[in-house]
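Protocol step 4 of 6: structure prediction from sequence.
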Amino acid sequence: MAKSDVTLLVTVSNTVLDSEPMNPNFPPSPMAAPAPAPGLAQLQAAVQGIVNVLGNVEPIVQELAAMPGQLHALQVAFGEFQEALGELRNRMDQIPMQLYNATANDETLIHYPPDIEPGDDLPQFKGQLRSLTVAQCNALINRLGIDPVPAHHNLRRRRQHIMEYLGCAMRA
């Protein structure tokens, strides 16, 4: 018998033996294929795990590539939030002044924001706000640091802008 005939016989024997149901009363045939080593199954599972992890790496890399743009957008949003929070704090700091001025009469001293030093150029009493000139209104708007009134607005609108900021409950 040639070597190729022996190989063919072993292959056919193994195929036949593998296809026959195992009888628990008889030991396995010496011609049967050997059972895989226990380490081989673990190795195959490990390789499959590595393949699964590598399959998940690409989406992670794509997410990481998108993060600088997302981080920039987050920084911009945080900056806008800080500005809004600063504006809210400024408005909250004005509430005590505005509440006082709203309940004061025309002969009561006006309260100004804490960072404004009272002086001769500022109206002292609430009633004096009604007699401000355009130049005085513009100077007071600048000194208070409030948004300027457009040039086309009349004197009444300028006075009203100042009164609203100070919390004076009256019309110009």
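Step 5 (inspection) to follow. Residues 102 and 169 are 5 Å apart (CA to CA).
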